[in-house]
Design goal:
Helix content: 40-55%
Strand content: 5-15%
Radius of gyration: 26 Å
Order of helices and strands: HHHHEHEHE
Oligomer: single chain
Distance between the termini: 72 Å
Strand order of the largest sheet: 1-3-2
Largest sheet: 3 strands, parallel
Shape: flat
Number of strands: 3
Structural class: mainly alpha
Number of helices: 6
Length: about 180
């Protein structure tokens, strides 16, 4: 009886030590390296712009890498953790995509039937131009995708069954001020 209890206690102690060991490895990988400074001179122009975008600093009018690098240095020290998270955020924003709904059934399958989160859908009236041009829509998709909002475009011209059901004939101009 005591031997079984001893082995059970030994088993829990080994599990506890292993858990702390793996926890220490994760802390070492993320904690120590995240506080190391990065020299902006070694970074590419694109990475420097990404850092400035994440810091919320406008770099318009700075065509040379030297000027952008100086702006990064003036805005504060660059930690490796900040660089890593900025690059991850950039990758995530590049991989965001917007769904083009092929028709009413595709819309209902994606949005209504699944009830999968929040959607922002740009509805394009039949034989009309979209309210937001491609660049503006892409910016909007990038902004809202950071909050987990899925996006899509529903073109009424591509779905003949939506013609009489939907009352949209002109886009509303109130949203363009939000961009």
């Amino acid at each position: 009886m005591w031997l079984k209890l001893f082995f059970l206690l030994l088993y829990f102690i080994v599990l506890f030590v292993l858990a702390r060991f793996f926890e220490a490895i994760v802390w070492y990988e993320t904690g120590v390296f995240a506080t190391q400074l990065v020299d902006p001179v070694a970074l590419s122009f694109k990475k420097l712009r990404t850092i400035l975008e994440c810091r919320g600093i406008c770099y318009a009018g700075l065509p040379e890498k030297k000027d952008v690098r100086e702006l990064v240095q003036k805005s504060g020290d660059l930690m490796e953790g900040e660089l890593y998270s900025a690059l991850r955020e950039e990758e995530a924003s590049e991989s965001t995509s917007s769904t083009n709904f092929s028709g009413e059934m595709h819309f209902y399958e994606q949005v209504e039937d699944t009830k999968d989160g929040i959607w922002l859908v740009q509805v394009v009236a039949k034989d009309k131009d979209p309210l937001l041009c491609k660049d503006q829509w892409h910016k909007m998709v990038k902004k809202v995708s950071q909050f987990g909002i899925r996006t899509g475009t529903f073109n009424c011209s591509s779905d003949p069954s939506a013609g009489g059901k939907l009352p949209w004939t002109q886009p509303s101009k109130s949203i363009t001020s939000a961009i």
